[in-house]
UniProtKB/TrEMBL annotation:
This is asparaginase. PANTHER family: 60 KDA LYSOPHOSPHOLIPASE, L-ASPARAGINASE. InterPro entries: Asp/glu_Ase-like_sf (IPR036152), Asparaginase/glutaminase-like (IPR006034), Asparaginase/glutaminase_AS1 (IPR020827), Asparaginase/glutaminase_AS2 (IPR027475), Asparaginase_C (IPR040919), L-asparaginase_C (IPR027473), L-asparaginase_I (IPR041725), L-asparaginase_N (IPR027474). It catalyses: L-asparagine + H2O = L-aspartate + NH4(+). It is an enzyme of class 3 (hydrolase). Keywords: Hydrolase. Its EC number is 3.5.1.1.
């Protein structure tokens, strides 16, 4: 019988109403029962009990090391997690658990387990099926969808099918339509150190370019700029971002330009407002959502000597 490890971190799925609203209190025993699985099939590791707003990159490093330590003891892993930052965590683990040879499945719910109309039980059972599928890699299972770990984005605050896959198709694990992924050819590699000196800047009309200088002068090594349209920045008069981007380049900072649009990704080779930024060494975020770009840039910076810029995200 396959062995699955359930790692709990809190979130809505484990919450009950307290003095100040919902907060995580349930443990793995309740979640395991809701899966309807054999008790000797799923073991439990109650790791955290946090709202996912409180999950920070240091926890991603801990999760990755925990899975690495136990990887060969289990056939698959289920991580229950709050929905608000689940896409960030799934992307971080996708990159940190390189060439993973078994399933790691993140799931949660929009309403707590056990309340009327909760989606928790369905999501837990879906995650259990994926964990038993043998399909290697990190995925997010939620609302009837299975999404590659670095492609997930939460689009709805309350709908059961809150997540969508950005830049990649959903994954199927059913019968003849199963999305079969071969075991990785390269050996597993844990990448468990992140450089947290990365900031995300969302542009808005009239944003002062000095905001870039603020982060550069504060010592941030990487900036992800959510630009307009296909990845554009202001170019004219005192609103031009180009001098600030040139300053970041000269200081050895890595700048990634992406889009505020949900679908179709960034293309900074098309319009002057993107091309001029690319000429200053700015990298394109491509079709990756910002939830994936953020941990990916953190990892790339750990591989890049201090004072040098990341040459490529791929």
């Amino acid at each position: 019988m396959p062995k699955i490890l359930l790692i709990t971190t809190g979130g809505t799925i484990a919450s009950r109403c307290g003095e100040h609203g919902l907060r995580p209190v349930l443990m793995g025993e309740e979640l395991r029962t809701a899966m309807g699985a054999e008790w000797d099939e799923i073991e439990i590791r109650d790791y955290l009990s946090l709202d996912s707003c409180n999950i920070i990159p240091a926890y991603w490093e801990e999760f990755a090391r925990e899975i690495d330590d136990l990887r060969t003891d289990y056939d698959g892993f289920i991580v229950t997690h709050g929905t608000d930052t689940m896409a960030y965590t799934s992307a971080a683990l996708y990159y940190m658990l390189e060439n993973l040879d078994r399933p790691v499945v993140l799931t949660g719910s929009q309403r707590p387990l056990g309340v009327s109309g909760s989606d928790a039980e369905d999501n837990l059972r879906l995650a259990h099926r994926v964990a038993l599928s043998g399909r290697p890699g990190v995925v997010l299972a939620f609302g009837g969808r299975v999404i590659r770990g670095n492609a997930a984005k939460k689009l709805y605050t309350v709908r059961d099918d809150a997540f969508r896959s950005i830049g990649a198709p959903d994954i199927s694990i059913d019968g003849d339509t199963a999305d079969v992924q071969a075991a990785p050819a390269a050996p597993f590699h844990l990448r468990d150190v992140l450089d947290e000196r990365v900031a995300v800047i969302k542009l808005y009309p009239g944003i002062p370019p000095d905001i870039v200088h603020v982060y550069v002068n504060a010592g941030y090594r990487g900036l992800i700029i959510e630009g307009f349209g296909s990845g554009g920045v202001p170019l004219i008069n005192e609103q031009s971002l180009l001098p600030a981007l040139a300053h970041a380049h000269d200081c050895g900072r890595t700048v990634v330009l992406t889009t505020q649009c949900v679908y179709d990704g960034a293309d900074i080779t098309r319009y002057e407002v993107g091309v001029r930024a690319a000429e200053l060494g700015v990298l394109s975020g491509g079709t990756l959502p910002v939830e994936a770009l953020y941990p990916l840039l953190m990892l790339r910076l750990t591989e890049t000597p201090e004072g040098e810029r990341v040459k490529s995200l791929t």
